[in-house]
Amino acid sequence: MKVAIQGELGAFSHEAAKRMVPGCVVVPCPRSKEVFDRLESGSVDAAVIPIENSLAGSVAEHFDLLLERRVFVQKEFQLRIVHNLIAAPGAKLANIRRALSHPVALDQCRLFFRRHRKIEPENFYDTAGSVKYVVSENLPDTAGIAGTQAARQYGGQILARGIEDDKRNFTRFFLVRKLPVRKNKNDDRQEKIGRVDAARRKLMLPRANKTSIAFQLQNRPGVLFKALSVFALRDISLSKIESRPRRGSPWEYVFYVDFLTGDDEPARNAIRHLGEVAELVKVLGVYPAA
Active site includes 171? Predict the structure, then answer.
């Protein structure tokens, strides 16, 4: 399988893709939009995207793309994020004066910089990209901060391991597959009310016991209470809920919800009931919980 990721080879998404789809060919893309473009065009079989970090929160752009595109979440995976200081071969920790990495990674290594005040953090476009740069340029006074996959990918030397502040730092990844193009207007209607159709069931893995959905509500008194009650009435546990502005519709919001059941009768009834309250319901995925 060809699996698209956003970022350079050696990024945490690369590691997650190898763990989720053993033996896959990883296709790096500079932007998230290109990941989804490749998936929809059929040039790759699947995509692996980060959706949420336990410290930094959600990846907003990926929620927007999941809502916009004809795709389906097939699997989730939680990767323990371990940051390492990686330099060109032969570099010495005592000589390092700059550490390059993505701003989120730098922010997660504050204690390391307090202990090593001679090393200045510097924003870079990508974790793995920082390692690629310092190794290719053979910089003796500069290192990148990234995972071990980046060190293996570019032949970097790990000068310090596990430099992240919080050892319970995890990123949640989705394995995303393409859905077939709608054939008629009835398919559009089924999409709007959140029906789990045959195309989605075909992509569902065995033991799928978690569901991600998105829904939009009109701004009326009590409407959010009514929307959430469809789950409470059926004893369905929500593991996540957040709202995001809807692109192209100022001051309108989409709610993203994860709940802990698969495509069973209570879930189908809850989604059907939600469709009576909401303007839009989209099932983003039904998958085995990580």
Answer: yes
Tokens linked to 106: 């730098």
The number of distinct structural domains making up the chain is 2
Catalytic residue among 171, 211, 215, 255: 171
Would 277 be classed as within a structural domain? yes
Percent residues over pLDDT 90 in the chain:
91
For 209-258, write each residue's pLDDT tens digit.
Answer: 999 999 999 989 999 999 999 999 999 999 999 999 988 889 999 999 99
User: What's the CATH code of the domain at 148?
Assistant: 3.40.190.10
**Residues in contact with 242: Cβ distance below 8 Å, sequence separation at least 6, in sequence order:** 58, 255, 256
Q: Calculate the CA 184 to chain-centre distance.
A: 31
Condensed to tens digits (0 to 9), the pLDDT of residues 64-99 reads 999 999 999 999 999 999 999 999 999 999 999 999
Q: Where in the sequence is the domain holding 128, given as residue range(s)?
A: 84-160
On whether the CB atoms of residues 255 and 215 are closer than 8 A, the answer is yes
pLDDT at 181: 82
Measuring CA to CA, how many Å separate 226 from each of 217, 223, 243, 270? 10, 5, 16, 11
> Which pTM does this prediction carry?
0.92
Residue 86's Cβ-count burial label (10 Å; 0-12, 13-18, 19+) is buried
Determine whether 124 is an active site residue.
Answer: no
User: Which is the catalytic residue, given 63, 72, 77, 173?
Assistant: 173
* Domain annotation covers residue 280: yes
Please check whether residue 226 lies inside any domain of the structure: yes
Any idea of the CA torsion for 152, 157, 160, 161, to the nearest 10 degrees?
A: 10
- Strand spans (E) along 102-178: 120-123, 142-146, 157-160, 170-178
Percent of the chain with pLDDT over 70: 96
Q: Of 92, 125, 160, which marks where a domain is finished?
A: 160
Whether the predicted pLDDT of 186 surpasses 80: no
